[in-house]
Amino acid sequence: MDNFKAFECVVEYLENIILCSDEVDYNVISKIAGCPAPLFQRIFVYITGITISEYLRKRRLTLAGYDIRNSSEKIIDIAMKYGFNSHAAFTRAFKEHHKVSPSSVRKFGKPLHDYPRTSFTNIRIVGGKRIMAELKKIEYVEFGARKIVGMMKMTSFQKAGEECWGSAFKEGVFDRIQEIERWICKDMDDYIGLGHMSKFVGKDHFQYIIGKFVELDAPVPEKMYSENISAGTFAKIWIESDNLNDIFDCAYLLCSEAIEKTGYKIDFENFYWCDVYTYDRYCTPLEKGQKIILDYLLPVIKDE
After folding, report:
1. What kind of fold does domain 134-302 have according to CATH?
2. Of the candidates 224, 258, 226, 263, which has an alpha carbon nearest to the alpha carbon of residue 239?
3. Fewer Cβ within 10 Å of end Cβ, the chain: N or C?
4. Per its UniProt record, what SMART domains does this chain match (predicted)?
5. pTM of the complete model
């Protein structure tokens, strides 16, 4: 199943739990989407402008409005059906969403503010605008075993910039890595640093290491973190845009689509996600006010 069809299946899962008032199981979402839940959550917010939990709330209130308008069922029973435990809580939420009270819809047929089911079928148009990043290049490389050395934090997409990169520069992480310069892997284009995401937890957290790849026998500077990286085949992908946020928002969509079309698939058994900031494609264009390119590395396997 390709990623866009898988994403549609996630929407189907969300629609199916609207009436049973179940909490979202992000492990289920991860299995259906074929990617870690935090990555899917970021994609979902980019497509819809709201989180998954907000989507469910808006959809439940939309369907509750239909039931109030089109049936004689008691309003409190409708509230309970869509997961609200009191008339007061339901009325507050209903008025916030629809701008009218449930009783005014029932008695006077006041108009509702619908929130329709979302769709990933037309992924190139998002919120009325085209995706603002472009895949410039994809190639497959064989990397030997290595390790990453740097600063490690558990973080989220919302906090990774300041919490991780800001701290890394403030604490002189890359200056300390230069102490082991002779061990830095030479099979990559010159880069200022990379971010390595793995160990995705729940709906939006993951382990993030900011640092560089070094040889396995490299010493680890004091108070720095290291983790071994297995040898394997990797997709090396360049994504270009005018700004970093546009790249972040749709990088996974563009990368996964390109990988599928070229006879490979993402290796989720050994999954991690690397954003690499090269001097030539990122640092220099950024200083000149030009379009920037962010390099991505993902472990892949042949799609047999």
Report:
1. Multidrug-efflux Transporter 1 Regulator Bmrr; Chain A (3.20.80)
2. 258
3. C
4. HTH_ARAC (SM00342)
5. 0.71
